[in-house]
Amino acid sequence: MVRVMSGIQPTGALHIGNYLGALQNWVRLQGEYEAFFAVVDLHALTIRPEPETLRRAIREIAIGILAAGVDPDRATLFVQSQVPGHAELMWILSCFTPLGDLNRMTQFKDKSTQLPELVNAGLFTYPILQAADILVYRAERVPVGEDQEQHLELAREIVRRFNGLYGATFPEPMPVRSTAPRVLGIDGEAKMSKSKGNEIGLFETEQETWEKLRVAKTDPQRLRRQDPGRPEVCNIFSYHGYFSDAATCAQVDRECRTAAIGCVDCKKLLARNLEAVKGPIRERALALRADPGRLDQILGDGAARASRVAEETMAMVRERIGLPKAGAGHG
Ligand code: TRP
After folding, report:
1. Dihedral sign, CA of 88, 73, 147, 45?
2. How far apart, in whole angstroms, are the C-alpha atoms of residue 115 and residue 80?
3. Rounded-to-integer distance, Cα 43 and Cα 20, Å
4. How far, in Å, CA of 184 to CA of 198, rounded?
5. Contact status, residue 81 vs residue 41, Cβ threshold 8 Å
6. Ligand 1 neighbourhood includes 5 CB (under 6 angstroms)
7. Is 111 an annotated catalytic residue?
8. Overall pTM surpassing 0.90 (yes/no)
9. Per-residue pLDDT tens for 66-113?
10. Quick one: which of 110, 188, 286, 306 is 20 to 30 A from 75 by CA?
11. Which domains does the chain have, with CATH numbers?
């Protein structure tokens, strides 16, 4: 079976952008591929979270992944830092990555202008760690959003350079596009993200979500109830596309254009369909939070399974580049 690898950072609470852009995709992929899904806590260190915040976030993200439907019997779910091969391979790959390649990374440029006080070497070499995440499993497919395609391209370049020097070692990982590539926040302007404060949390109650939807932007030209709306420019309508069935979307489209329904009616319908997805996820998350031993067990098993594959890769890499075997013995 073809291997797929992906990761999500334990920074902030999950929102529906994460669900649509990543988690929902992961659930689909676990049936088609041999899947490795990681909570990438080492990546999160680039923003230097408080230890207690990080500890909690790692568990919360893992709970969210499971609650969204990732099945630990079908996919390997683990915490990145519990598999030492990631950091080890990252160092090795960093010696095969020209600085010029890293300098071109637009995410680094953006982040370092946004938060100049947080520019550390980890932020700069972040894409190499991401490459290591993928390559340590010799994964061939990586579900990523469009903002991560440049990082994936860098991983492919690293593969080509490494394979060119040492013979075919890693496959070139290819992207698997998500079905919802760019989910906007409730401001209807920027990509949904916790740092923008425009998110709908995955674990929010129905009431909390409604408070946000109630005031969320719609078609800016539809000022009065009787004005016809334009679904194609309405962010709420795009959410219908994710959470409502085709018949409902067609009906909303028609009734918005003729002003048969107002924005509040449209939002109420969305709220109901959103809750139908979010409600069961919230309930499963509650059950998982109430049983910390079960989560420990799942993540422990996941780390063990991931480590077996990672160690296999590292043994091969060490051998090819002339490093001794891992551990105390020599020869
Ligand atoms: N950088 C990715 C993001 O922010 C997260 C990530 C880390 C990742 N390692 C990965 C994604 C490996 C895919 C594969 O979204």
Report:
1. negative
2. 25
3. 21
4. 8
5. yes
6. yes
7. yes
8. yes
9. 999 999 999 999 999 999 999 999 999 999 999 999 999 999 999 889
10. 286
11. 3-183+291-321 (3.40.50.620), 206-286 (1.10.240.10)
